[in-house]
Amino acid sequence: MENRTDTSEFIFLGLPSNPQWQIFFFLVFSTVYLITLSGNITIILVIRMDSSLYTPMYYFLSHLSLVDICYSSDIVPKMLADLLVKQKTISFISCLTQMFFSLLLSVTEVFILSAMAYDRYTAVCHPLHYVVIMNKTVCTYMVIGAWMMGLSFAIINTVPTLDLQFCGHHKISHFSCELPPLLKLSCSDTFVNNAILFSSVAIFGLGSFLPTLISYIHIISTILKIHSAEGRSKAFSTCSSHLIVVGLLYMTGMSQYMKPSSLSSMMLDEIFSVQYSILTPMLNPIIYSLKNKEVKRALGRVFGKSKCYHLF
Fold first, then answer.
1. Is residue 1 part of a domain?
2. Fewer CB within 10 Å, N or C, the chain?
């Protein structure tokens, strides 16, 4: 009979044990985290302080930046602390808490991206009705809806985990608490948990991906009907950055949670996780905003220095 225990803590195996590599990765991820915080906080402050950015697009961007700050802060500080110690442990409650917020924030982010896709669809395909369609009330409900979807997803997948039992070693082959590696450790029957995870990823994933896909089908169709090359280029430039980030996020996130177990490996899982939980929050303010002329002008006005135009 298997030795069933009440787990008090887990040990992470997904971080290097060599001191030199630990220092290297500590410096790398510290830099990434600082860039993530400074970039996203700057975006939020500039959008709140400059009235020219009081538009639906920048309203969504400010919430996307907030999600990215929280998402990165849920993962990176613990990772950095573990890189400075030999025994990389986390308590059971802390592990579930980290996992809960990771699930919440990842799904909230994809639904905010979906809202941004609809915003771009309205701006390109219905420019004359844009102000009426994308009014303040609609935008507020869209953001609240995104957070509610994230909360629902997190609760649906976290609550069943509370009943799991763990046997033998409590070593997680990862650098953070994510649900798939955690389910592999359990000596309980995880069929229901895996079914819930797969079903919810499919439902919530399609629920955010299909509106984005449909929006861009209409956007591309409208752009192709524009006669002037300059007009087509200008219309497409408003959407290209969003497409890049959406593509990266969906490819890595969906691959992580929906790939067959036969394709799973610790290194592959970690690469996917680093991409969507650490690198994407850093890249979002750069791709979406810091290369945007309106944001550059706003930076100059807010900080009172024209030199800000050339910082990015």
1. no
2. N
Long-range contact pairs involving 225-233 (C-beta distance under 8 Å, separation at least 24): none
What does the H/E/C string look like for 59-97?
Answer: HHHHHHHHHHHHHHHHHHHHHHHHCCCCCCEEEHHHHHH
Distances (CA, A) of 61 to 7, 11, 40, 140: 40, 36, 9, 13
Rounded CA-CA distance 48/312 in Å is 20
| CA nearest to 243, candidates 277, 272, 219 | 219
Q: What is the pLDDT of residues 130-154, one digit of tens each?
A: 999 999 999 999 999 999 999 999 9
pTM value is 0.87
Cβ contacts of 7 within 8 Å, gap of 6 or more: 92, 165, 166, 170
CATH of the domain at 64: 1.20.1070.10
Per the structure, how many domains does the chain have? 1
d(CA 221, CA 209): 18
The residue among 219, 299, 271, 304 whose CA lies nearest residue 44 is 299
Looking at residue 306, what is its pLDDT?
Answer: 44
Range of the domain at 47: 7-310
- With CA atoms as reference, report the closest residue to 48 among 60, 57, 59: 59
Describe the crossing of helices 191-224 and 92-125 by its angle, rounded to 10 degrees.
20
